[in-house]
């Protein structure tokens, strides 16, 4: 059964009056005249469009709560007790610590990653800005790629412009420099561009002034099919953003709106980006332009659009021979997207990846160029990383992870404050009361960085610790499948637990798996 919370959710701080709810409307089966609340429709009566977005804004990321018929839990990883691929089948050598979980991305020159994950794009939202130091430094020391999201220059209050083009953005500079200071050869920092970024000249600035080597063209993401959004609390900032070319709702220059704001009738403006308009010829021109500016790697991120748009993304990326195509399924998380859109729009990750696999196979049969593929959309731990790689093998080389990588950065950041104030929560205090006692890998990092260890943000240590867990867990799963390098993972490493999952993915149903081999063994 497909389920979705329609009229009550922690994301919008709403709830039904009674437990018996009409499944398809979300309305209480008995709606009382005089009810004091607070279902979503009730709360919308007072606050209207504010209820479109999860909150409190700037303090949360959000992920869809809809249950899809087929997701990664509908597959199990196949284990075996026979042989070893990628290493000598010797019990003393084929141990899980010897599994190679490193990967490479790129058409010609390669981005080397210590493990097959990288961060989702963190753009102009408050939660991204507040946690960027931990994300950038943590990614650099973990050997993965980090992506700066859209609109960072456009909303930077200290940004300088000339003739509508960016001259300097202290915020983007801060983000890039934090990664570069700790970068040791693995991973890279990519800067995303949307319609506004392109108009403002962000790619040129990032490449020529900041030394950024990777630019990600953005068609969309899995959480929404509209442009990027943030909320703005100060009317002067809203006016400035409107002047820079953004769409502001309500209009901060409208006298009626100004008066309502001054009287406290509302406290926030919404800043919206424009919809991108994909065109094949324009896409190829843009890829060439970015390369001519000096971009070492050009990538594309597309969202959970209809199958025809997925085909466009794959075909255009193939023809342009870009370095990476990230395909983002619905159900994942973001800083600010319409809550109902997150739940009810787009193709869920497994369906999207299954479709992509079929399209990539067609290109392979024609001997066309196939860019490296990354899958995003609700991936959080090592088993899902394995399944994403296996379901799309041999084309999928990495998992793009948004909320999952942001969580350890946020938790580590707050641990720093708790330690300083002596207010460690009970769940942390049980491990100790010092950095070395609390963080499992603190001593390892202290040995590696020496006196520079004290400069590491605890959020970065948190992300490093999380990445290590993913790497170790992935090695264990791969060793169980007897695959000792990522390139050996394939679709036979999965089995579908339901006939529907088998139909959607093409992965054999568990009762049919290995059937011919079983018959051969039994004679």
Write the layout of secondary structure elements.
Elements: H1 40-47, E1 62-63, E2 75-77, E3 103-105, E4 111-113, E5 117-119, H2 126-130, H3 132-142, E6 146-148, H4 152-155, E7 160-162, E8 165-168, H5 170-182, E9 189-193, H6 195-200, H7 202-210, E10 214-218, E11 229-232, H8 235-243, E12 247-249, H9 255-262, E13 269-272, H10 280-293, E14 297-302, H11 307-320, E15 324-328, E16 333-334, H12 339-344, H13 349-365, E17 372-376, H14 382-391, E18 396-401, H15 403-421, H16 426-429, H17 435-438, H18 442-449, H19 458-480, E19 494-496, H20 499-505, H21 515-522
Parallel strand pairs: 5-18, 6-9, 9-10, 10-14, 14-15, 15-17, 17-18
Antiparallel strand pairs: 1-16, 2-19, 3-4, 7-8, 11-13, 12-13
Helix pairs in contact: 3-5, 3-15, 3-19, 10-11, 11-13, 14-19, 15-19
Describe it for me?
The protein is an alpha/beta fold and 523 residues long. Among the domains are: 229-272, no CATH class; 496-522, no CATH class. The protein has 21 helices and 19 strands. The chain has helices at residues 40-47, 126-130, 132-142, 152-155, 170-182, 195-200, 202-210, 235-243, 255-262, 280-293, 307-320, 339-344, 349-365, 382-391, 403-421, 426-429, 435-438, 442-449, 458-480, 499-505, 515-522; strands spanning 62-63, 75-77, 103-105, 111-113, 117-119, 146-148, 160-162, 165-168, 189-193, 214-218, 229-232, 247-249, 269-272, 297-302, 324-328, 333-334, 372-376, 396-401, 494-496. The strands form six sheets. The chain has an eight-stranded parallel β-sheet. The protein has a three-stranded antiparallel β-sheet with strand order 11-13-12, with helices on one face. The chain has a two-stranded antiparallel ribbon with strand order 1-16. α14 (382-391) crosses α19 (458-480) and α15 (403-421) packs across α19 (458-480). The longest helix has 23 residues, at 458-480. It is globular and about 85 Å long. The mean pLDDT is 95.
């Amino acid at each position: 059964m497909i389920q979705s919370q329609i009229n009550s959710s922690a994301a919008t701080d709403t709830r039904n009056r009674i437990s018996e709810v009409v499944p398809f409307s979300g309305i209480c089966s008995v709606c009382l005249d005089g009810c004091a609340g607070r279902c979503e429709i009730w709360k919308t009566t007072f606050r209207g469009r504010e209820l479109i977005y999860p909150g409190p804004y700037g303090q949360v990321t959000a992920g869809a709560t809809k249950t899809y018929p087929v997701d990664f839990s509908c597959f199990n990883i196949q284990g075996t007790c026979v042989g070893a691929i990628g290493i000598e089948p010797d019990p003393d050598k084929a141990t899980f610590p010897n599994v190679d979980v490193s990967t490479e991305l790129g058409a010609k020159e390669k981005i080397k990653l210590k493990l097959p994950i990288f961060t989702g794009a963190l753009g102009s939202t408050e939660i991204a800005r507040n946690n960027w130091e931990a994300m950038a430094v943590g990614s650099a020391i973990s050997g993965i790629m980090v992506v700066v999201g859209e609109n960072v220059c456009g909303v930077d209050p200290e940004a300088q412009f000339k003739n509508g083009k960016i001259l300097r953005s202290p915020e983007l500079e801060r983000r890039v420099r934090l990664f570069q200071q700790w970068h040791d050869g693995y991973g890279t920092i990519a800067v995303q561009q949307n319609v506004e970024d392109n108009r403002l000249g962000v790619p040129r600035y990032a490449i020529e002034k900041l030394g950024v080597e990777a630019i990600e063209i953005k068609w969309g993401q899995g959480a929404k099919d509209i442009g990027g959004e943030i909320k703005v609390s100060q009317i002067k900032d809203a006016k400035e953003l409107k002047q820079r070319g953004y769409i502001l709702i309500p209009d901060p220059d409208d006298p009626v709106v100004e008066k309502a704001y001054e009287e406290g009738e509302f406290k926030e403006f919404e800043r919206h980006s424009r919809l991108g308009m994909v065109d094949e010829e324009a896409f190829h021109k843009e890829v060439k332009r970015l390369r001519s500016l000096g971009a070492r790697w050009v990538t594309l991120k597309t969202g959970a659009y209809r199958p025809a748009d997925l085909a466009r993304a794959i075909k255009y990326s193939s023809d342009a021979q870009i370095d990476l195509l990230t395909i983002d399924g619905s159900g994942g998380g973001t800083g600010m997207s319409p809550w109902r859109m997150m739940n009810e729009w787009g193709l869920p990750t497994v369906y999207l990846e299954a479709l992509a696999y079929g399209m990539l196979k067609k290109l392979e049969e024609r001997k066309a160029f196939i860019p490296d593929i990354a899958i995003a959309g609700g991936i959080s731990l090592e088993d899902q990383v394995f399944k994403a790689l296996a379901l799309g093998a041999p084309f999928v080389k990495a998992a793009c992870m948004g909320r999952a990588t942001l969580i350890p950065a946020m938790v580590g950041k707050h641990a720093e404050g708790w330690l300083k104030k002596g207010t460690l929560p009970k769940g942390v205090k049980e491990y100790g009361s010092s950095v070395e006692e609390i963080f499992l890998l603190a001593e390892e990092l202290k040995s590696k960085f020496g006196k520079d260890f004290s400069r590491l943000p605890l959020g970065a240590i948190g992300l490093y610790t999380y990445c290590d867990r993913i790497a170790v867990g992935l090695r264990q799963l791969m060793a169980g499948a007897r695959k000792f390098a990522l390139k050996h993972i394939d679709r036979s490493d999965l089995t579908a637990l339901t006939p529907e999952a088998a139909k959607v993915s093409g992965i054999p149903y568990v009762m049919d798996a290995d059937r011919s081999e079983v018959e051969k063994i039994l004679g």
